[in-house]
């Protein structure tokens, strides 16, 4: 019986280059033995999610998400509640492409990304269910809250298209001086954190925001979130944590970080301030929020025997830009001390 694949693509992703590459992408899946068709997402909300669900119910064997991390999230969201879930593949065409980075999918060539299907390798990936008062949805990579997570909302689309990851670094540097703590009650497997934090992350891969060492010991399919709570809102301490992160993931050893593995997270605020939840780079409702790990829930096409990813020259260029940004942070840290009002923001509930 002939296998069928449905490519769900976002026409505005990848500076709209995905449309030009579509015939070659379809040809790859045809050569891999799939009768292949395509669906172009529409401006209406949840277009990719609805089509993914329809394709799954129609019996398609493979659903391909071609777009950014938001498109991947929608496709996963569309199939996650179904008893029969088709295999998934991704064609990364977004700004950070964290999920592709985690799965060792080429991130600068759409056709090469599709050709990973020839390796006939997959990995069963954990998915997160995220519940807020406003909605219930799924996440593939990251759930987060706090001031720095708002970078995602504030970077204009045209800036992301032109500058890519660098746009986030620039906006992040701009936002650093106005970081304020939030006060949290955060329950997780084996413990409770109650106190101040500038942000928290619930990660399902090791790649977040272009950083590959956010969760350096992450094991795919273990049924666990990597929970990271940044317990400080001190500007200089946050700069040090960023440099430790860029230096082999050493941030996990800091006393200013809570770093644990857990299959659930429940977070509520202890104060009057609104706490917006970021789900795979998009607004996902307000706290209180619950994260539940669904172990090995979706089978993803991946390059599982690739221990190291070949470095594309454009990756090197991005790395140089990131290194320059970190050097600027170090210079800021070594410059004249800031006044206490600039550095220490508010008092702690718990240290």
Would you mind describing this structure in some detail?
The chain is of the alpha+beta class and 351 residues long. It folds into 2 domains: 118 residues, Rossmann fold (3-Layer(aba) Sandwich), CATH 3.40.50; 166 residues, Tumour Suppressor Smad4 (Sandwich). The chain contains 11 helices and 16 strands. The strands form 3 sheets. It has a 6-stranded antiparallel sheet, covered by helices on one side. A 6-stranded antiparallel sheet has the order 12-11-10-7-14-15, with no helix packed on it. A hairpin with a 2-residue loop joins strand 14 and strand 15. Helix 2 packs across helix 3, helix 7 crosses helix 8 and helix 8 runs parallel beside helix 10. The longest helix is centred in the last third of the chain and has 22 residues. The termini are far apart. The C terminus is likely disordered.
Radius of gyration (CA) equals 20 Å
What about the largest sheet? 6 strands, antiparallel
Reading off the top of the CATH hierarchy, the class of the largest domain is best stated as Mainly Beta
Which structural class fits the helix and strand makeup?
alpha+beta
Level-2 CATH architecture of the largest domain: Sandwich
Q: Are there runs of 5+ residues with pLDDT below 50, and where?
A: 151-156, 158-172, 307-316, 336-351
**Mean pLDDT level:** 80
Strand proportion, as a percent range, falls in 25-35%
Percent helix, as a range, is: 25-40%
